[in-house]
Each structure stands twice: as C-alpha cells, then as structure tokens.
Automatic annotation (TrEMBL):
One Pfam family here: DUF417
GO process annotations (BP): response to hypochlorite
Listed GO CC annotations: plasma membrane
Species of the source: Massilia psychrophila
Protein name: DUF417 domain-containing protein
Organism classification: Bacteria, Pseudomonadati, Pseudomonadota, Betaproteobacteria, Burkholderiales
Transmembrane segments: 26-47, 72-99, 106-128, 148-167
Keywords annotated in UniProt: Membrane, Transmembrane, Transmembrane helix
Length: 182
C-alpha cells in the first residue's frame, strides 16, 4: 500500500514538470518549424542573389564543368548565363518556400524543387576533384569543395521536412490560418 502512495506522490510531483516540458517542447518545435522555412528562404535568396555576380559564376565552374549531370549545360549557356539562370531558380525556390505562411501548395512545390536541387548538388561530391583531402585520406573532406558540398545533406533534410510539412498542411487545410504546426 505504501508503494501505491509513493507512486501516486511521485506522479503528482512529476506531472507539473512534465506538462511544462510538453508546453516548452511544443513551443520550441513550433519555432523550429517556422525557422526551417525562413532559413531555407534566406539561404536561397542569398545564394541566388550571389549567382548574378561574376565571382559566383566563376566559382561554379570547377563544380559544374566536372559534373556529368550539369556539365553539358556549359555547352548551351555561357558561364554567366548559367549562373544567372541558377540564381533565378534559387530565388524562385526561396519565394515558394517562404509562401508556406500563405499557401502550402506553393511551399510544397518549392520544397520539392529544393530537395531535387540538393540531390543534384550532392552528386558533385562524386565528380568534383579535390572533395577529399589527400593528406588526410578518406573520409577527410577538404574545406572547399568537400565541406562546402557536405552542408547540402542538412539542407536536403530541411527541404524534405518542409515538403512533408507542406503536404500535411495541404491535407489538413492548416495553411489558411497560417498554422505551421500542422
């Protein structure tokens, strides 16, 4: 009998802490969800805007020219034109993702395109010379382009999350209220 009483007392003592932990975790998760959409949009706006500079266009050359997936595009477009078109695509993806606050259909499209773009950029790890640091050997990554490309795994994960969240909002109709928790 004392066991039940102790168990009951412990449960009561823990319950308020548990409830406050649930409230805190729900609030943090809501902020995290919104932050993913905002962060992806900011990254796309910034990276996309940089694609209109000569500096960025030339920086893409070693990545794109060695890629069997993208390299052929330099046969159709100049380095600057390719970079500018990529900039338009990236800024458009950023706008679509940020539209999650208004339309989950638009953000679903943006997140899907984002995931596809990051899958393509991750293929550059296999085709770009210098990804692995020879003095360290595998799995040591060079700072550029190795670690630069590796970050795309995290951005791919954020894009997949944003796509799933947007699809869920379409199914539940939550975007009309702008509720990013659904």
């Amino acid at each position: 009998m004392s066991r039940d009483t102790n168990s009951s007392i412990n449960t009561r003592a823990v319950l308020p802490r548990s409830q406050s932990a649930e409230v805190l975790s729900a609030r943090l998760e809501a902020v995290g969800v919104k932050s993913i959409f905002i962060a992806l949009a900011v990254i796309y706006f910034w990276f996309g805007g940089m694609k209109f500079t000569s500096y960025e266009a030339q920086g893409l050359v070693p990545l794109v020219s060695n890629s069997p997936v993208l390299g052929w595009l330099y046969g159709i477009f100049s380095v600057r034109t390719f970079s500018s078109l990529l900039g338009v695509l990236e800024i458009s993806i950023g706008v679509l993702i940020l539209a999650r606050f208004l339309s989950p259909k638009l953000s679903a499209l943006g997140a899907f395109l984002s995931a596809g773009l990051f899958v393509i950029t991750l293929t550059l790890m296999a085709s770009t010379p210098g990804v692995f640091e020879p003095s360290i050997g595998f799995p040591g990554l060079s700072v550029m382009p190795g670690q630069f490309l590796l970050k795309d795994f995290g951005l791919l994960a954020a894009s997949v999350f944003a796509f799933g969240n947007s699809l869920k909002a379409i199914a539940t109709g939550s975007a009309i209220r702008g509720d990013l928790n659904n």
